[in-house]
Amino acid sequence: MAYLVRSRINVMNDSVKSRQYQKIDRKGAYEGFSGFVEYDKQYHGMKEVVMDQKNLEATSKLEFQPSNDYGEFEIDSRFIDNISYLSGFIINGSGATDTKKQVFVSHGWDHLQIAQPLSSSKSYSNYVKMHEVQKATMSGDIYVFDGEEMVALVGSVKFKAIPRAVIDQLLSPLKGVASSSSRMAAIEDKLVKGSKPLKSKNAIIDDFLALIGEELGVEPSELQDDTTFADLGLDSLMSLSITGRLPEELDLEAIPSSLFTDFPTIGPMKAVIMQLTDTSTDETTTGTTEEEDPATADTDDTEMVEEIPLESAPSNSSFSEAMDGLLAIVCDEARLAIASLMGSEDPTGTTTPYSVNDDAKSSTTSSAPSSVNSASTPVLESIAKPDYDLEVQDISQFTRPATSIVLQGSLKTASKTLFFLPDGSGSATSYAALPRISPDLYVVGLSCLFMKTPSEYTTGIEGVASLYVSEIRRRQPEEEIEALFLIDSPCPINLQPLPSELLYFVDSLGLLGVQGSAPNWLIPHFEASIKNLADFMPYPVDSEEAPRTHIIWARDRLVSESDEKLFPRSNAEAKSVKFLLDGRQSLGTYGWEKLIGSENISVDFIEGNHFTMIREPKVNQLSTILDRIIGA
Fold first, then answer.
1. Of 3.30.565.10, 1.10.260.40, 3.40.50.300, 3.10.129.110, which CATH number belongs to 2-163?
2. Where is this region: N-terminal hotdog fold (predicted)?
3. CB-based burial of residue 432 (10 Å sphere; 0-12 exposed, 13-18 middle, 19+ buried)?
4. Is the CB of residue 33 less than 8 Å from the CB of residue 45?
5. 612-628 confidence digits (pLDDT tens)
6. How far apart are CA 298 and CA 321, in angstroms?
């Protein structure tokens, strides 16, 4: 096989003179990448590239940058990146893909073989031909040669197409997040320099249509007033993505997450956008506007080894353990919300029992506090803490992060942030029907990275909690937990697995899925969540440091005795079955006091069952309760 590939490299190099193939130098190659990622000079290993853009075939000459200043390695990770870049370049950097509309993101390789040590003192060549293996998925093998001898093989490199709008939303904060003080300094600087003209309503409508077109991959000219968003392929997750972008990109406030449900066609939607604008006429007016400075720091390789970084802030083991420990207790894929203060140099006005120690306070100008006072304090006696230290799972193996979507509010006006963790569906769309809670609250919904690939969900509860922590810290580097909300969430102590038969029964009632029917990945994700939960052993948080916690129970049974469909019951059924089918008839803590401490817990009821409590009209009660508790 090697000699066939080698001969193909020779043919491509020899055909450059006849212009059958295009040749570009190092500068041109990395400029091709620069539309979506910039590599540091030390990663510029491709000296020149010869490519067949149409057939997604390429070969390159490789000269690695010297590694003397970066330590000694058995295999320098930068060299592995260098030999792999060609696969991503021929798809994304050669012009073969319109990267304004979509970008192919690496999903790793099947195997990597390196027969001889790679050296910066040698010149190498490599070759790849990418091809489509399934819809929106490209694959290929990368062959690496030292002269005529093959010295490395990267087998079955895979890339999947992701809409550019989604990539921009995910990666825009990854180059670092400005602290609140730096954001305020930037705002004050802009105000001193002068005012900025506000856009007219017509201009905002144009921007809105451009945003819709970007998200859905259509031209704005195709968006006629009678066009329905469903016909354009808008799904619930995309609608949340758009409503999350509107406040920050169009400077609109009070955007309900149900916007596209309430107004399913272009014409009425444009009228709503017009009403939401702050300008009083269609003529341009002037005023002061506060613009966030998206402060960023360089990120490296998004392709083969590092791929998309999981967090922009530097990791600190002790702090991560404390945060992971709290989330792991409650992160059983049940409903969870965390209210926190916006990052500030000196947080005040909070009643949180989660106190940041002196070392942490002194580091608030960096990306994250250094630690939290939780490791050395005694725990509740009602359930023993394991005699081993909590080991935070290494999440570097995961090339996709947990993601999040803005559900309500704006960073410009909010004083607090509320993070919703996903329920068993794994999707932030579970909270799409939640009415606006408070005008000064920034609400973010997280989605599980295994949502549509539940077979890959093998991390355990601690592992997925670490991924959620990374995404929360990306959104808000300074962590100060003010309150924890448990929304009809069962206590995970000795919680037996929920049988799959019950999930299918619930689906038959039309209670799974946003539109009343579950997508094909939803029940498998529930099952994967249940499997991971079965292996989870919770331990308590010190009651003196646990956040104030508010439990919101669903009062009603899932089905009544008079309903036509009933699930078969037995005396030996799992506690989880009883929890889901039966309502909560008393204002109890149902086991959570063993993990958080009864003195930290308050309780509320909502009329409705486990599923209808987050749907209209019952969800209005949930919004009211959240507003009351957060504002208290």
1. 3.10.129.110
2. 1-2
3. buried
4. no
5. 999 888 999 999 999 99
6. 26
Domain boundary assignment for the chain: 2-163, 195-287, 317-631
**Rounded mean pLDDT of 341-345?**
39
Q: Do 589 and 598 form a contact (C-beta atoms < 8 A)?
A: yes
Protein fold of 317-631: Rossmann fold (3.40.50)
Strands 335-341 and 416-421: antiparallel
Any idea which residue has 């083969």 for tokens? 304
pLDDT digits 0-9 by tens, 509-543 = 888 865 556 788 888 999 998 888 888 888 898 88
How sure is the predictor about 444, in pLDDT bands with cuts at 50, 70 and 90? very high
* Structure token pair of residue 478: 């300074």
Pairing of strands 416-421, 441-447: parallel
Q: CA of 129: how far to CAs of 3, 11, 31, 155, 419, in Å? A: 16, 14, 21, 12, 43
Prediction pTM value: 0.51
Mean pLDDT of 414-437: 88
Helix-, strand-, coil-residue percentages of the chain, each rounded to 5: 35, 20, 50
Find out whether 465 and 327 touch, Cβ atoms under 8 Å.
yes
Question: Would you say 491 and 540 are in contact if contact means Cβ atoms under 8 Å apart?
Answer: no
Q: Give me the CATH code for the 195-287 domain, please.
A: 1.10.1200.10
